[in-house]
Amino acid sequence: MDLHLATGGPRPYKKSSKPTPSGSGITTARTEKSSGWRIGEDNCRGDFMLYKNKNLLELVPTIELGSSIAEQDTLLETARVETSVFSDLLADRIDLIPGTKGSGKSALYRIFVEFLPDFLLQHRKVVIAHGVNRHGDSVFHVFKDRFKKLGEEDFVDFWCVYLISLIHEQFIKNPRYSKHLEQCNSEIEVFRRSCHQALIPDIRAQKSLKDILEWTLFALASIRPRLKYNLPDNAGQLEMDFLIESKKSKKISSEDADFNLPSYAAQIKKDLEVILTKINLNIWLMIDRLDEIFPRRSDLERRSLRGLLRTIRIFSSDQIRIKVFLRDDILNAVVAGGEGFTALTHLTARQADTLRWSEDQILTMIVNRLSTNTGLCRFLAIDNDKIKASLEYRREVFYKVFPGSVHKGTRQSGTLAWIYNHTADGNNVVTPRDVIDLLSIAKQHQHDIFISNPSGQSSWIIGPQAIQYGLTELSKRKRTAFLEAEFPQFWPSIEKFIGRKTEYTEKALNRLLGKGCQDIVKDLISIGLIFKGKSKGEFIYKIPFLYRKGLDLTQGRAY
Question: What is the tens place of the pLDDT at every residue in 90-115?
C-alpha cells in the first residue's frame, strides 16, 4: 500500500518513464534541499515537474471549475459526484434532505429536475418541480401581505392546493405525458371535477407561477372564509373561521387532525392515485429554495414551513412523494419550540442525514471538474477513464495541479487536507460551494502571478500563494454574504470578535459577550462560527479557519 495514500498525505511525484513531449512546456527536475516545499513526505528527495510560466499563462485562464451557485453551474451534470444521499434519493428512500447553505441541496435538486427526468420516467417516475427558480422568489413576495394572514392550519391548505395545482399544470396538462394518459380520459375527468369542486380552476392555457399562486390563495379564501369582529371599547378583534363541512373534515383534536387531509384534498389525491395506478406511474414533487421565499427567521416562515412539513406526511403515499430540500438550521428552528411537532418521527423516518462531504468526496469533486478541461487533460496527459475508476489516481491528478503542501516544513499537512480543514466551519462541515469559491479565486490570482513573471518556471499550476489568497478572500465573503446577511440577529454579538483572538476561555467569552451569554453562545455554535473543545481540563472556544481572515483575527487565546 502507498504510505502517502494510507496516511492521507499527497502522492509524491515520480519521474515519468515516458519522454516528456517536445514543446509541452514541461521539464523534469530534482527538488532542492533548500526549497522547503514538501513533495510527498520527503522534501529532500524525489522528482517533480517544472512548468514554463509562459505556457501556464495560456493554460490557467482556460481551466473551468464551474460555479459555486448550482443554478449557474455549467459543470453540474458532467462533473457530478454521486453521494449516498444521491443514491438514497434515486432509490426513493428519503423525502426530506437537510443541509447547510452551499452543501449541495440545490445541485441535487437541479440534477433530478433538469438532468434525470427522462431516466426516471423510464423507471415510472414523474418529476414535478416546485415553481421557484432563481428569480421565482420575487413572485412569492408579491403575495407577502396575503401570506401574513395565514396560520399554520391555513398553510396546510395552501400547500395542498398549491401542489395539486402543480400536478395539474405539469402532469395532467403536460404534452410530454399525453401518451401515458391517453387511456385515462374518464379518470382525468373525475380528477378535474374534484379540482373544480375545490375551486381549483381548470384553465386550458398554460399558467405561470404567479397565476398558480393567485388561484391557490383565491381557493384558500373560499375554502376557509373568515369573519372579523371588532370588540366594543377597543377591546380587540375576534377572527372566526367558517369551515365548510363539504370542503373540510371536522377536527377532534390537533393530534388527530394532523393525520388527516382536508376532505377536498383527500378526494383529489384519491382520484390522482387512480390515474397513477392505471398507467403505473409515480409522482415526485420536488421543492427547493424555501429559504428565499419567506422572510428569514420570521413567524411567517415558521408557520409556512411547519404547514409544509405536515403536508409532506399527510399528502404523501407510495405513489405520490413530496421531496423537500431544506437548510438544516431552518429545519431545526421550525420543528423546535414550545408547541412541539406532532408525530415528528413519522417525518424523520424518511429524512436523509444532513449533507456532509468527506475529504475524499471533495477530492473527487475537484478532480471531476478539472478533468472536464480538455486543454488541461492534454497538457498533463490525464486519463479520464482512470479518474472514474481510481481514488488513488484522482489524488495523483490533484497533485499534478496543486503543490504538495501550502506551507513550508516537513510536518505540514498535504494541500488537499489543508483546503478541507480551512474550509470547515465550527460544525466540521465543508461545502462544495466554499471549496469551489476558494479554488476559483486562487486560479484567478495565479494567473496574475504568471502575468507578472512570464519567463519563470513553476512546479505547480495553482500554487501555495494563490491558495492562501483564495482562503483570505473566501473568508471575507463568508463574513458579508453569510454571517452578516444570513444572521443579522446575531451580528451585534459576532462583530465583537472582529480584530480579536482566535480562541477564548469561558471567562474571556463572558467578558466579551456579556453576562448570561449562554444562549448566544449556543446560537453561534449552531451556525458554525465557534466550536467548543477542551485544553488541560478547561473549556476553550475556537473560531475555525474559515472565518478568521474575514474577522481579522489574531492567532492566540484570550483568557
Answer: 999 999 999 998 999 999 999 999 99
Could you give the CA distance from residue 401 to residue 48 in angstroms, rounded to a whole number? 12
Q: What separation in angstroms does the CA of 11 have from each of 48, 203, 369, 449?
A: 11, 62, 20, 26
Distances (CA, A) of 140 to 71, 128, 261, 322: 19, 19, 24, 20
- Who's near 476: CB < 8 A, 6+ residues apart? 549, 550
- Read out DSSP for 374-426? HHHHHHHT--HHHHHH-HHHHHHHHHHHS-SBSSSSTTPPBHHHHHHHHT--T
Helix (H) or strand (E) holding 96: strand 96-99
Location of C-alpha cell 446577511: 485
pTM over 0.90: no
On whether the CB atoms of residues 272 and 167 are closer than 8 A, the answer is yes
Domain ranges of the chain: 3-67+357-484, 84-348, 488-558
- Rounded to a whole number, what is the distance in angstroms from the first to the last CA of the chain? 46
Distance of CA 135 to the CA centre of its chain: 17
Q: What share of the chain is helix, strand, coil (3-state, %, to 5)?
A: 50, 10, 35
Mean pLDDT of 122-135: 77
Cell numbers describing residue 356: 456532509
What is the H or E stretch that residue 283 is in? strand 282-287
Which residue carries 446575531 as its cell? 490
CB proximity list for 295: less than 8 A, separation 6 or greater: 144, 301
* 556 contact partners, CB below 8 Å, separation of at least 6: 501, 502, 503
Grid cell for residue 468: 492562501
Tell me which DSSP letter residue 353 carries.
Answer: P
Gyration radius (Cα) of the chain, Å: 28
Mean pLDDT over 460-474 rounds to 98
Could you tell me which CATH number the domain at 488-558 has?
A: 1.10.10
Beta-bridge partner residues of 541? 504, 532
C-beta separation of 70 from 134 below 8 A? no
Cell representation of residue 317:
403515499
Span 145-182, pLDDT tens digits: 888 888 888 888 888 888 888 898 899 999 999 999 99
Residue among 26, 16, 3 at smallest CA distance from 47: 16
Tell me the average pLDDT across 549-556: 97
